[in-house]
Structure formats: C-alpha cells, structure tokens
Amino acid sequence: MKIIVIGAGAWGTALAISAARNERQAHAVTLWARDAVAVEQMAAERMNQRYLPGYGFPPALDVTNEDISTLSAPPSGRGFDLVIIATPMAGLRSTLQQVARTQCTVAWLCKGFEAPLEPGAPGLLGYEVLQSVAPHSQAGVLSGPSFAQEVAAGQPTALVAASPNESVRRLLVEAFHSPELRVYANEDVAGVEVGGAVKNVLAIATGLCDGLHLGLNARAALITRGLAEMTRLGIALGAKAETFMGLSGLGDLVLTATGDLSRNRKVGQALAANKTLEQAVAELGHVAEGVYSARTVWQRASTLGVSMPITQAVVGLLDGQLKAPQAVAALMGRGPVSEAY
C-alpha cells in the first residue's frame, strides 16, 4: 500500500514510522511537512529532531513537501491509496479541501472540535467538517489511547479505526495493524470523535487535580464523572453509549488524564502552579488541543442542553474567570444529584 501522512508533528511522524517498519505489509510511506527546510533536515538525518527526536526513520519512509494535491491526485500524481491527515484540528478543513478531488481514501488523526467559523455557529467534529467540505469522500478517523513516543518505539498500542464505510475501516486496519499496533474497527464515528475531543478537556482538569495534590480519590472521581459527561454529549450527538467504554472513550481518557506524557495534563498542572495559560502553552512547545477546544465543547453541550460541569469549570479556568482552587470549589460545591445524571 502507498500511504501519505500529511503533518509531521509527533503523532503523524510516529504513525508513519510504525506503518513503514511493518515488514509484514511492506507499505511505502511518505511523510509530508509544510516547511521545506524541515523536510531537508529530516531527509538528511532520517529523524524528526524537532517533534520526535531519537526515533529513526525506517528505509520505507520518505519525506516531502511537494504540493499535496499533486502528490495524491491520479493519474499525474503518485496515486496514494490512503491519505492520513495528521494536522491539528484547525488544519483539517483546509487539508480536506486540498485532497477532496482525489480518489484516495482519507482518514484523520485530529482530536477536538473545530472552532466556530462565525459567531453563533457550532464548533464541528471532524466528520461534520467532512460533511461540509467533501461529503462524498471515502473517509474515516483513527483514534484511541496513543502517545507518539511509545508508538514510535514499537511498544504495544491499540487504536480504533472508525468509519460508516466498511471498506474504509478494512483499509485502515490493513494499513496500520501490526504485531505492535492493534487496530479495531468501529462504525460509530460520532462516538469515537466525541471521546477524542472531550478527553483532552478532562485531562486538563485531572492535571489541575494532581497539581493541587488533591489525592487519588479526587483523580478517580474526576475521571469517572468526566466519562459520564463525555457519554452524555456523545449520546446527544447520536453516538452509541457503548463506544465510550472502549478505546476512544475510557481508554483514551485514562491515558491522557494520568500519563506523564500528556500535554493537556501538563497544562492543568502548570495552571495549578499559578502559571498563566500563555506560560503553560509556551512551555509545551506542542499543541494541546484541550486548550483550544474546551470552550467549543462547552458551547456545543450548552446548545444541546447537556450538563458538563467539569468542562464548564475548565473553561472558566482557561478564560481566567476562575483560579485553580475556585475551579475545584465550583465542582465540589454543586448540589447532590443522581449518579445517572
């Protein structure tokens, strides 16, 4: 199979490395980056020193910054079988527009809600962006609990390939399933995407909890009640409840909320240490999607009448309306409700 990964951040690079070293499938993989200087450096060093240092490129991995539409459009282009979009959510729409006229199957790794395009408009999940840009494309999403460094190192990982189209799910499994990386198929795109978006917001809350040294009981409560919030929003958007007990729901939430490699968790920890949001983000050097999607998640939930108090507290914290202790007090001071709500 010929695969191109658009976006040479840590996760895009790691997935490209994983696919290219899969000797069982013998894929030819191309990693695309916007910056010509970065591409030249990666080609020379056979490594992405900026975003994933220490993990060499397999021989089957190429790098390029050629025009995306030329790369993927048959018959004049290279005719890739699969285009993987590994940009931040903010870049999904424009990248889909570039590849929409090709005949390639497309999937994205982006997790989050797109920022509203105009005041009063809802923020959209990836599959909703696809519906507005290229509704007839053969497409899906690849998600699940996965730190880039561990995937690049070949450590055991499990992902979920979601699409309403069985042929797309099958293609994604064929592309990335390997002895180190298990890929499970799922047709519930809405559920998979809600899980991937909301878990980042909840990881900020859990990082805050840990940064304030509130204890393991508090962390467990936040994760569990956060899962309830995630599930409520997903069901309101047409997802299946059982999806949130799987890899893209509970699995990704536990990883992002507790793992030391989690960028969103680090943001919460930094805020607990009285750092500004700007300082917290600058220290990361990478995108923390929860920072950008928290308000959009909250606005979408509010429009649907879905209660998400943890998300609401995170928004207040990020907007500077609440200090870290006040955000915790707002959650603990809520009136008693049934666990089912």
Task: Give a concise summary.
The protein has 341 residues and is α/β, with parallel strands linked by helices. The chain is built from 15 helices and ten strands. It has helices at 10-20, 36-45, 68-72, 92-99, 126-133, 148-152, 166-176, 189-211, 216-236, 247-258, 263-272, 277-284, 289-304, 309-318, 324-332, and strands spanning 2-6, 28-32, 47-48, 52-56, 61-64, 82-85, 105-108, 139-143, 157-162, 181-186.
Report on this structure.
This protein is α/β, with parallel strands linked by helices and 341 residues long. Helix content is 49%, strand content 13%. The protein has helices spanning 10-20, 36-45, 68-72, 92-99, 126-133, 148-152, 166-176, 189-211, 216-236, 247-258, 263-272, 277-284, 289-304, 309-318, 324-332; strands at residues 2-6, 28-32, 47-48, 52-56, 61-64, 82-85, 105-108, 139-143, 157-162, 181-186. It has an eight-stranded mixed beta sheet with strand order 5-2-1-6-7-8-9-10, with helices on both faces. A hairpin with a 3-residue loop joins strand 3 and strand 4 (52-56). It is globular, with a radius of gyration of 20 Å.
